[in-house]
TrEMBL record:
<dbReference type="InterPro" id="IPR006195">
    <property type="entry name" value="aa-tRNA-synth_II"/>
</dbReference>
<dbReference type="Pfam" id="PF00152">
    <property type="entry name" value="tRNA-synt_2"/>
</dbReference>
<dbReference type="InterPro" id="IPR004522">
    <property type="entry name" value="Asn-tRNA-ligase"/>
</dbReference>
<dbReference type="GO" id="GO:0016740">
    <property type="term" value="F:transferase activity"/>
</dbReference>
<keyword id="KW-0547">Nucleotide-binding</keyword>
<keyword id="KW-0030">Aminoacyl-tRNA synthetase</keyword>
<feature type="domain" description="Aminoacyl-transfer RNA synthetases class-II family profile">
    <location>
        <begin position="134"/>
        <end position="452"/>
    </location>
</feature>
<dbReference type="GO" id="GO:0004816">
    <property type="term" value="F:asparagine-tRNA ligase activity"/>
</dbReference>
<dbReference type="InterPro" id="IPR004364">
    <property type="entry name" value="Aa-tRNA-synt_II"/>
</dbReference>
<keyword id="KW-0436">Ligase</keyword>
<comment type="subunit">
    <text>Homodimer.</text>
</comment>
<dbReference type="GO" id="GO:0005524">
    <property type="term" value="F:ATP binding"/>
</dbReference>
<keyword id="KW-0648">Protein biosynthesis</keyword>
<dbReference type="GO" id="GO:0006421">
    <property type="term" value="P:asparaginyl-tRNA aminoacylation"/>
</dbReference>
<keyword id="KW-0963">Cytoplasm</keyword>
<dbReference type="GO" id="GO:0005737">
    <property type="term" value="C:cytoplasm"/>
</dbReference>
<comment type="similarity">
    <text>Belongs to the class-II aminoacyl-tRNA synthetase family.</text>
</comment>
Length: 462
């Protein structure tokens, strides 16, 4: 049989041919002589129109009553209809109901709200919008692998279960086999993890970076692409508890090389998706964000801005804009500040570099001023931060004193310290939030709507 995607891509090739398609009914309307079915087969977010007539079908009565969501086999002639609203249709000769549907099917022809669709996560991929979103998500994932593989990066699978907190933010989901009703305790009253399955305290990873560094210092160019977990109880439209992250890590690279790589990657992803999902992207440009295509196309040819944190703070202060959270050197930039910088001041993606060390993680390389670290966050219009990265502290003594400052136990990071002892050359990397780039690509404003099965505080339906 034929995939509906092919009909939309190359209608001329199938003109006047006898074809067979399989799909589900999106709408079915008709009179007692003829009817129209919009049939969606999942290979494309748009549906193909099927025209059926009493004259040609011996089961006309049955088909005219076929409900939304019922699965059909349709045989008929594919005809181009350039004058009509639909560019083509299938004139049915045979229609078979392959699976019926109950009449209380929740998705009807009208436009449903994203909130309503979230409540039926098992059915929402059947809507046009989610069909387009999840196809773009799939293509973007492939583009990312392609980008790194073409550059001979090694894909490393870092562990999901880990004993170290990469970001040091204490936002880990702990996992344990201990009996929760009857937790074993040590003499000093702490939980006795020696009786746990792994014999120590473990959690779901917040980032594969520390492990990726071990591979970067062996393979030079590596990347991870996997799920990460954060028990951060922030109910925003940009935070999920389970999200995917891409983390390249490169030996012999500094902060500037790191930003060059990130910029090339972002442009590559955009170009790939525009080329391979033009219809879906056009759909987003029409229904999600009017300026989307223009913005993305311009961006592929533009140079991203780069500004230090210190300069950015000055710019924000000078802007005269009244922020909810006042700007002072030393604050962690809030979404409102990030968005103002990228949307109002630069009007394009901007890397903010060299943040105060006190608001960044322990592994970032200390700058000569002793106050800032060689960090880079990439901010984009509409979303804010999509990348967080840095050059890593490769100097054993500096790293050690930073860890002491933060009361991190050296014993927990002995292997990470070891990397600094044996050929620990300068290296850098970053983490791209996969959902954040999908939001950026589609104009979808809530992270829940780019995740196939969103996990956020108080929600994990199945
Ligand atoms: O800035 P973050 O916390 O950086 C790291 O985890 C580093 N270890 C990465 C590295 O250098 N290898 O997270 C990186 C990115 C953020 O910029 C954001 O896009 C995304 O991950 N992110 C989230 N996305 C969705 N929900 C959350 N709760 C997220 N937290 C971070
Ligand atoms: Mg960050």
């Amino acid at each position: 049989d034929i995939q509906v995607r092919s009909l939309f891509r190359e209608p001329d090739k199938y003109a006047d041919q006898e074809i067979t398609v399989h799909g589900w009914i999106r709408t079915n309307r008709g009179s007692n002589k003829f009817g129209f079915i919009e049939l969606n087969d999942g290979t494309f977010f748009k549906s193909v129109q099927v025209v059926y007539e009493a004259e040609f079908l011996n089961n006309f009565e049955e088909i005219s009553k076929a409900p939304i969501a019922a699965a059909l086999m349709v045989k008929g002639t594919f005809v181009l209809t350039p004058q009509a609203k639909q560019p083509f249709e299938i004139k049915a000769k045979e229609v078979v109901i392959e699976a019926d549907s109950d009449s209380d099917y929740p998705l009807q022809k009208k436009r449903h709200s994203m909130e309503f669709l979230r409540e039926i996560a098992h059915l929402r991929p059947r809507s046009n919008t989610f069909s387009a979103v999840f196809r773009v998500r799939s293509l973007a994932a492939y583009a990312i692998h392609k980008f790194f593989q073409e550059r001979d990066f090694v894909y490393v699978h870092t562990p999901i279960v880990t004993g170290s907190d990469c970001e040091g933010a204490g936002e880990m989901f702990r996992i344990t086999t201990l009996d929760m009703e009857n937790l074993p305790k040590t003499e000093d009253g702490k939980i006795d993890y020696s009786q746990d399955f792994f014999g120590k305290e473990t959690s779901l990873t917040v980032s594969g970076q520390l492990e990726a560094e071990t591979f970067a210092l062996a393979f030079r160019n590596v990347y991870t692409f996997g799920p990460t977990f954060r028990a951060e109880n922030s109910n925003t439209a940009r935070h999920a508890s389970e999200f995917w992250m891409i983390e390249p890590e490169v030996a012999f690279a500094d902060l500037s090389d790191n930003m060059d790589l990130a910029e090339d990657m972002i442009k590559y992803i955009i170009r790939y998706v525009l080329e391979h999902a033009p219809e879906e992207m056009e759909f987003f440009g029409k229904f999600m964000d009017k300026g989307l295509l223009e913005r993305l196309t311009a961006l592929v040819n533009a140079e991203f801005a780069r500004v230090t944190y210190t300069e950015a703070v000055e710019l924000l202060k000078k802007s005269g804009k009244k922020f909810e959270y006042p700007v002072e050197w030393g604050i962690d930039l809030q979404t409102e500040h990030e968005r103002y910088l990228t949307e109002e001041i630069y009007k394009k993606p901007v890397f903010v570099t060299d943040y105060p060390k006190d608001i960044k993680a322990f592994y970032m390389r200390l700058n000569d001023d002793g106050k800032t670290v060689a960090a880079c966050d990439l901010l984009v219009p509409g979303v804010g931060e999509i990348i967080g990265g840095s050059q890593r502290e490769e100097r054993y003594d500096v790293l050690k004193s930073r860890m002491d400052e933060l009361s991190l136990d050296e014993k927990d990071y002995w292997w990470y310290m070891d990397l600094r002892k044996y050929g620990g050359v300068k290296h850098a990397g970053y983490g791209l939030g996969f959902e954040r780039i999908i939001m950026y690509l589609t104009g979808i404003s809530n992270i829940r709507d780019v995740l196939p099965f969103p996990r956020t505080p108080k929600t994990a339906e199945f």
